[in-house]
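Escalation from tier 1.

The customer reports that the assembly of two entities below gives different structure tokens on two consecutive runs. Tier 1 could not reproduce it. I'm attaching the input and our single run for tier 2 to review.
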Amino acid sequence: MYELFKNLGTWLTSGSQWSGTDGIAHRLAEHLEYSLLATLVAAAIGLPLGLLIGHTGKGAFVAINLASFGRALPTVGLVVLVFLASGLSMWPVYVALVALAVPAIVTNTYAGMTAVDPDVRDAARGQGMRGGQVLLQVELPLALPLIMTGLRLALIQVVATATIAAYVSFGGLGRYVFDGLAQRDLVQVLGGAALVALVAVTLDLALAALQRFLFRHRTA
Amino acid sequence: MTIDWSWIGDHTDDLTTLTVSHLQAALGAVFLGLLISLPLAVVAHRIRPLRGFLLGLSNVLFTIPSIAIFVLLLPVSGLTRTTTVIGLTVYTLVVLLRNTVEGLDSVPVKTKEAAKAMGSRPLRTLLTVEFPLALPVIMAGVRIATVMSISLVSVATYIGDGGLGQLFTDGFQRNFPTPVIAGVVLTILLAVVADALLVAVQYALTPWLRRRA
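Tier 1 run:
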């Protein structure tokens, strides 16, 4: 056990491990690229959907069921399925990651919108604001903390799951996990897994700090 | 992408075995998760300083990728079912713990005081007043944890377990979509059925909520 951790330490800290195409720095950049792009696409789909459902109050049933359906969808299966349908491309990775992230974004955006005090909404309307103005100037800012939480949750899940890109022959930190498993090289597997966990935890803490900073003037 | 129905017809036994094994892993994890998080939630509910620590810890555990949890457990429990169940349990903790604490928090203070005034001891109040009243929130957590576990079992296919997830590797290696489609459909079906059953269980356990709804 001790020997294993010593080897793991050497693996993580040696300079040669960090450079080159198969180096940690490059794999880390790939991993972040997949994760951020997938989360952005998911946000572009999920945010308007959640805002619309929250604003109109229609389709809440759909939103809630979408969330539980998203949770039930096995990501590994989805990746393989899209891979078999599309062949060797980035589609399987992005479809699976976006499908994973959209439900979290939609439900949290919707939850944020429903948490807006109806009296505030009425007051905005009473002042003569139009539907679009109420949405953008009143509801959206008030719902923002919960929306941010949804985005954060989605990003963390995507970072954790982007490991799967390596399964369909792409890069990212998952490369070490799958190559290590294939080569029965436990140190490499553990190193990859530890790095993914580290990135996920760091991003989560950083975003939590950002969130606290942005909403430091709010009491609720 | 066509479905080879004859393959499904020829492999009903395998599919049944994998489905049962899949369900066992997921339910085992939720059961273990409840066993751990119910007492921890009581502690977090009663002792405020520990609350942030316990909830924060479960949050950090949740951010660790599922594949990483399985892999990190390899030196401890190897390529076994134990690794699968422990890994999934870690994942259920965040939802179960948070919902149980929130459920206990939602019990009105006056109700607890009334129980105390009637001579109920703390443990009895906990078991006969607090837990039943917290049940809807706890059950919401159990439902999420169950559906999540059912979907996550397939990740354990990378460490040689994974129930229906084995169909994904099989289909991937042979470039044969049928087992993959069967695996995805069965996983979702399992999740939907399990969720519906839990709703029924909750309905049966909370008769006092029916008239109001």
